[in-house]
Amino acid sequence: MASGATLKIYLVFFVCAIASRSASAQLSGEDYYARSCPRALETIGSVVASAVANESRMGASLLRLLFHDCFVQGCDASILLDDTANFTGEKTAFPNVNSARGFDVIDTIKSKLEKLCPGIVSCADIIVVAAKYSVVALGGPSWRLQLGRRDSTTASLNAANTDLPAPFLNLSALITSFSNKGFTAKEMVALSGAHTIGQARCTTFRGRLYNESDISPPFAASLKTSCPSSGGDNNLSPLDVTTPTFFDNAYFKNLLGQKGLLHSDQQLFSGGSTDALVIDYSFGLGSFRNDFADAMVKMGGLSPLTGSSGQIRTNCRKVN
Ligand code: HEM
Ligand SMILES: *[C@@H]1O[C@H](CO)[C@@H](O)[C@H](O)[C@H]1NC(C)=O
Ligand SMILES: *[C@@H]1O[C@H](CO)[C@@H](O)[C@H](O)[C@H]1NC(C)=O
Ligand SMILES: *[C@@H]1O[C@H](CO)[C@@H](O)[C@H](O)[C@H]1NC(C)=O
Ligand SMILES: *[C@@H]1O[C@H](CO)[C@@H](O)[C@H](O)[C@H]1NC(C)=O
Questions:
Q1: Do 182 and 236 lie in a common domain?
Q2: Which of 62, 79, 153, 288 could form a disulfide with 281, with the two C-beta atoms 3.0–4.6 Å apart?
């Protein structure tokens, strides 16, 4: 009897715990704004399409914003908060400073949405939707969106510095960095395929040009003209030397030819445990597209604020 009652109490507690956990952490589907802001997605899609048509790199920049938002206290738009006299955000963190971009495009989207349906669409959801439309605009895969995030009232400079992987990490450190966020090594490799688009500054890959041996000599030589051994820190080179504005699997083919731009890129194909997967992705575009899409949905699910947590910011750059 006593143990039956105890079991019942445990059961009730267990069910409540699960219910409250999912209530605080569960996202809704792509139709989340269907009633409250029916034109939300098409509005985001059209601003992204014209921004990418104007400058194809913007698609890469918007995709990277999602990664840099979601890996730092979850997908809560914390990366968008500006520093003020009494607030320090994430924009000056090492991986973001002079590097993260696309904030003006997010502002354009937000101001259109605030006119259309004030106080409804979160900045965190805007980042997620803009990243998907950016990938699609550059020829990449599509996926079903999960929506219903709310925006943080905080940011973490420290977490941005510690949780975002640096380009000089080796394979085991890259695997650990993603595993800390719940991703497998396979998902880490698929997500790194994002470097099939966009640009990097000389300062992020100089050591690879002048100090590493697993780099194609003609590739290194051509990069050295715009990335000298000192100076030119902000000079840009494409992460995918073959098709920098097209979302394909050329990134993986480049790795096979030792033409990864970043040290961290080439680590995925440098005699370690992920070599076989890189070879697979370099042959079969289809599996990369599927795995990338699945991993993007998973990234969008990192610790969202839902229910009554957080807020819907009016201006993505500041707390209401
Ligand atoms: C695996 C670990 C990763 C490292 C070490 C890394 C590092 C970097 C670095 C150093 C840059 C150049 C930044 C600059 O010079 O300003 C860059 C650019 C970029 N990264 Fe990553 N990244 C990683 C994973 C990812 C993931 C998971 C995504 C998205 C799913 C991503 C998307 C991008 C994009 C699209 C760019 C180009 C941005 C632009 O042109 O504005 N990266 N990354
Ligand atoms: C178009 O792209 C350029 C950079 O290539 C940028 O300076 C300009 O602001 C962009 N214009 C619009 C309307 O987005
Ligand atoms: C500092 O924070 C207070 C709220 O705590 C806010 O009202 C004020 O505007 C902030 N000042 C600046 C310069 O950001
Ligand atoms: C990878 O880097 C970590 C930390 O920087 C280091 O401790 C480890 O020995 C390195 N592993 C290999 C295989 O080089
Ligand atoms: C190359 O490595 C040497 C020795 O570790 C170091 O002193 C030098 O700064 C490195 N050069 C670059 C361009 O990273």
A1: yes
A2: 288
Do 240 and 224 fall within a single domain? Answer: yes
- H or E segment at 237? strand 236-238
- pLDDT, one tens digit per residue, over 77-87 is 999 999 999 99
Active site residue 68: yes
Catalytic residue among 68, 91, 253, 259: 68
Residue 310 CA to ligand 3 centre (angstroms)? 18
- What is the C-alpha radius of gyration for the chain, rounded to an integer number of angstroms? 21
Q: What is the pLDDT of residues 199-253, one digit of tens each?
A: 999 999 999 999 999 999 999 999 999 999 999 999 999 999 999 999 999 999 9
Separation of CA 133 and ligand 1 centre (Å) = 18
Query: Rounded to 10 degrees, what is the CA torsion of 143, 25, 131, 197?
Result: -90
Same domain for 213 and 248, yes or no, is: yes
Domain encompassing residue 87: 40-164
179 shares a domain with 234? yes
Q: How confident is the model at residue 58 (pLDDT cuts 50, 70, 90)?
A: very high
